[in-house]
Design goal:
heterotrimer, A alpha+beta (210), B alpha+beta (294), C alpha+beta (161), B: 294 residues, alpha+beta, five-stranded antiparallel sheet, C: 161 residues, 5 strands
């Protein structure tokens, strides 16, 4: 084993020449004959009931190969696994929104067509009506007994309570930093950070073409 | 209203007439369904995101008379299809220093290589730089329609957000920017979240000195209303004043107090007022300094 | 007039096609001409991944329809690269300065930097930052990219890097 070959050396990456000259192969560069492109119909409201969804006009639009709604795809999905804590019920993940939408961007239908242009044209032909409902937007609203339950399947907006550990006591060894109770002043701040687990953008995802 | 997240435009018929009269005829024939395409740096994103759509696009790039910059009657006439990058490169346009100074704030160099001066004026975005320059120097806009050619003073051209005094079948062909003689200085400054972003508040200033006294001044603001604003009351108060006696922060505060800016996702009304209060003294100082050394 | 005939010179080669008027220059280059080095990031003119040269000027190919390039000369990242393989000094500078990780934004940066250095061969750090502000990178944090452009500029001007 040549231990000295890489240790302490600046090692040039082997992929850089390809990437610098436009010869990288990203998923959109992979051309498969007869492949389709997809476009999504998504919710524009944070919460609402799907009153009407009719994809017939989209199905017969030029270049369209298929239009899928929850009725088509959801029964085919057998398991969505989500890493979570033991005995912690997690909101259900639907392939496509079934009877209601639960965040802005919630996908309702997929149009599969010859190319992205035609797919997006067909999305506009889908007849959809959503009756907006009041969204539950923060922790306080979620805990309020008067707020609607966002996921009826869970029966509650607070499916799990994680105990918060209190401030350390003053009986700690002196070499540790001052404890909360010893600090000369303190302040309370409320931070509202916009975050939605359901609506988060994919980072570090894997893609496949078929 | 788009209900997906489109990135491709809806279909349209594309026209690329070689003559202005032909362009106007197409606009007349199709009314609201037709739109002029200049550099496309504002229009194409709107079309791609399907926030706007038109059945017909009329590309003006082949119409010779819309290009070119020349000195005419004490003004610089800039053809509407002149790219923002070419405004900066033009020796003739240098006679109106505000043009190059404003251009450096517009977007990024890739945008400026396609975006046009005429397109920016006709699009009339409240946060755009060229409309503020136009009203600052009392430019006039040369517009041609089925009934012929007319000149619209900049002060009457910008009506509201994305609305100008042009009729749907009229085409902006050129903008005339008066040249100021004498010892002049100029400045443009704005506050944007990142380089190239839309300005939350911007200021344009021109000053002419007669010795130590202000003989002429123009002060305009953008991003603080649906149209660019001219601070005429402040300008009048400055005429005849000795430059070194001016309390610039005071002037900034006075201008800010006249504003009733909108509050939105990018900045509150209060923030915009505070930006104006800080920017006005800055552009005045820069312009005065430049005029002193002119 | 939904379909338009166009003739455009791409990387030195004359190409004639009939395309839908709404087809962007970016999609024309990638899908019709298989020049996939030009990338689509935002498709609304913000990220710069789609930057190409039009008659020598850096432009956002997602903010142009292919038909607007009729009669013009387009240069993509492939056209700026050595045909026989190997890297141009600018590309080599990107590699030495670790100015790329995933590489998705890289063609856009290389094309933009190429155009910038042609017009401004001895830029200050501030000018480099300003010139690169129209290109977004999610991976590198930009410092390597700025160093690469600076390195390429001083190499071009004969001073040691």
């Amino acid at each position: 084993m040549t231990a000295g070959r890489f240790m302490g050396q600046a090692v040039a990456r082997t992929e850089d020449p390809r990437l610098l000259t436009g010869r990288g192969r990203y998923i959109a560069d992979v051309v498969v004959g007869g492949a389709s492109d997809a476009a999504f119909l998504r919710s524009e409201v944070a919460r609402g009931r799907i009153v009407r969804l009719d994809a017939e006009a989209a199905r017969s639009a030029p270049g369209v190969r298929a239009v899928y709604t929850a009725a088509d795809l959801n029964p085919l999905v057998h398991d969505t696994s989500v890493a979570g804590l033991p005995d912690a019920p997690y909101p259900p993940k639907y392939c496509l929104a079934e009877n209601d939408v639960r965040y802005v961007g919630d996908p309702i239908a997929i149009v599969v067509a010859e190319n992205r242009y035609l797919a997006e044209d067909a999305v506009e032909l889908i007849d959809v009506e959503i009756e907006p409902q009041d969204p539950v937007l923060d922790v306080d609203a979620a805990r309020d007994a008067n707020s609607d339950v966002v996921h009826p399947e869970l029966g509650t907006n607070t499916p799990q309570v994680i105990p918060q550990f209190g401030p350390p006591t003053s009986s700690r060894p002196s070499r540790t930093p001052p404890t909360w109770s010893e600090t000369p002043s303190s302040c309370t701040a409320t931070c509202k950070l916009p975050w939605s687990a359901a609506a988060s953008s994919p980072i570090g995802s894997r893609t496949a073409t078929s | 209203m788009p209900r997906g997240t489109p990135v491709k435009p809806a279909p349209f018929d594309y026209h690329c007439p070689g003559e202005l009269a032909e362009a106007i005829a197409i606009l007349q024939r199709h009314g609201d369904e037709a739109k002029v395409l200049a550099g496309g740096q504002s229009l194409i994103p709107l079309l791609s995101l399907r926030l706007s759509r038109f059945e017909h696009l009329v590309d003006l790039r082949a119409i010779e008379e819309l290009h070119g910059i020349m000195a005419v009657d004490g003004s610089i006439r800039v053809g509407a299809m002149t790219t923002q990058a070419n405004v900066t490169r033009s020796q003739d346009a240098a006679a109106v220093p505000l043009l190059a100074k404003a251009t450096s704030h517009i977007g990024h160099h890739q945008i400026r290589n396609r975006g046009t001066l005429g397109g920016s004026l006709a699009h009339a975005d409240p946060a755009a730089e060229y409309p503020a320059v136009a009203i600052a120097v009392d430019a006039s806009l040369e517009v041609v329609g089925p009934n012929g050619s007319r000149r619209i003073p900049a002060g009457k051209f910008f009506m509201s957000t994305w609305v100008t005094a042009m009729a749907p079948d009229e085409v902006l062909v050129a903008a005339h920017f008066p040249v100021w003689p004498g010892s002049c200085g100029w400045a443009v400054d704005e506050v944007a979240r990142r380089a190239g972003d839309f300005a939350m508040c911007g200021t344009v200033c021109g000053i002419q000195l007669d010795g130590q006294r202000v003989s002429r001044v123009a002060l305009a603001l953008f991003g603080v209303d649906s149209v660019p604003l001219r601070a005429r009351a402040t300008e009048s108060a400055l005429i005849g004043a000795a430059v070194d006696d001016l309390d610039l922060p005071d002037i900034g505060a006075a201008v800010a107090a006249t504003l009733d800016p909108p509050g939105d996702l990018h900045a509150s009304a209060g923030q915009r007022r505070r930006m104006a209060k800080a920017l006005v003294p800055r552009v005045l100082a820069t312009a005065i300094n430049e005029a002193k050394h002119a | 007039m939904r379909e338009i005939a166009l003739t455009v010179t791409v990387n030195g080669e004359r190409v004639s096609r009939t395309v839908e008027a709404r087809r962007t220059l970016a999609d024309f280059l990638r899908d019709d001409l298989s020049l996939t080095g030009t990338h689509l990031g935002c498709e609304h003119g913000v990220c710069g991944a789609c930057t190409v040269l039009l008659n020598g000027d850096a432009v956002r190919s997602c903010l142009m329809f292919a038909v607007q390039a009729d009669g013009a000369e387009v240069t993509t990242i492939e056209g700026l690269s050595e045909r026989a393989g190997g890297l141009t000094p600018l590309q080599a500078a990107f590699q030495s300065e670790h100015a790329l990780q995933c590489g998705y934004c890289t063609p856009g940066f290389v094309v933009s930097a190429h155009a910038f250095l042609a017009e401004c061969p001895t830029p200050s750090d501030e000018e480099i930052r300003d010139a690169l502000s129209g290109n977004l990178c999610r991976c590198t944090g930009y410092q390597g990219i700025i160093a690469a452009v600076k390195r390429a500029a001083s190499a071009d001007n004969g001073s040691s890097s």
